[in-house]
Amino acid sequence: MKQDINAADSSTNAAATAKNQSPKKPEKNLYEPYSTPRVLYEAIRFLAKAVFFLVARVHLRGRYNLPKKGPYIIASNHISWTDVPLVPSYVPGKVVYMAKEESFHSKVGWLVRFLGAFPVKRGEGDRQAIRAAQEQLKQKKVFIIFPEGTRSKTHTLGKAHAGLGMIALRSGVPVIPVAIWGSENALKKFGAHVTISYGEPMLLKPKGNKITREDIADATEQVMQRIAEMLPERYRGEYADNATTPPSIDTTSVN
């Protein structure tokens, strides 16, 4: 009897051990953006544009500067959460972008991932996010980045992080500077005027054979300075001192 009980206990323990050692379901690699089906992506884009058509007056500048296909980087200032759907809505094809890591653990985390985002740890040099961006550009994707890292509470340009310069120099693809303003009022004031200005492509290169920290800082500065020049003076913030006002550009209204 005692042997039977011991045998039963051994069988139970073995079963429990086997259960604990059973292969776990592989975790999702959040740094590999979800490939949204094209028909669904276009449907979401159409819905976003329809909403902004009804509540705001969107004006586009220099849209002809956008290449017909990737790879290229779109670097935009960030004054409102509405910049996230507004900037890519008028870009040909699908895009991928960085989103703060916290977004993926929120109630809308599934939507953030569904729209082609991958996480970035704010406030630190997230090399994994930078590698993910480079990999997406190798796949000829269009990559959107907000170099300031967060929305500006003052609605003016803040100091950019060096990630933009690093990704641009390492990937060797063009950067399209984008200036957006008026988006802070897009869903607050009916009929608010929102302007999105797409600048000429910038191909950034290091001074020598190797990329240095100085090269990365200079590349980031060049792009941010160009964005500042495209913005009205009151939005230029950190980059106001050296910005000059460029010649007027033809504006297309989509409303």
Automatic annotation (TrEMBL):
InterPro entries, sorted: Plipid/glycerol_acylTrfase
Keyword Signal recorded: no
Segments forming domain Phospholipid/glycerol acyltransferase: 72-183
Pfam families with a match to the protein in the record: Acyltransferase
Tree of life domain: Bacteria
Biased composition (Low complexity): 1-18
Presence of the UniProt keyword Acyltransferase in the record: yes
Alphabetic keyword roster: Acyltransferase, Transferase
Molecular function GO labels: 1-acylglycerol-3-phosphate O-acyltransferase activity
Region (Disordered): 1-30
One of the protein's GO biological processes: phosphatidic acid biosynthetic process
Protein name (record): 1-acyl-sn-glycerol-3-phosphate acyltransferase
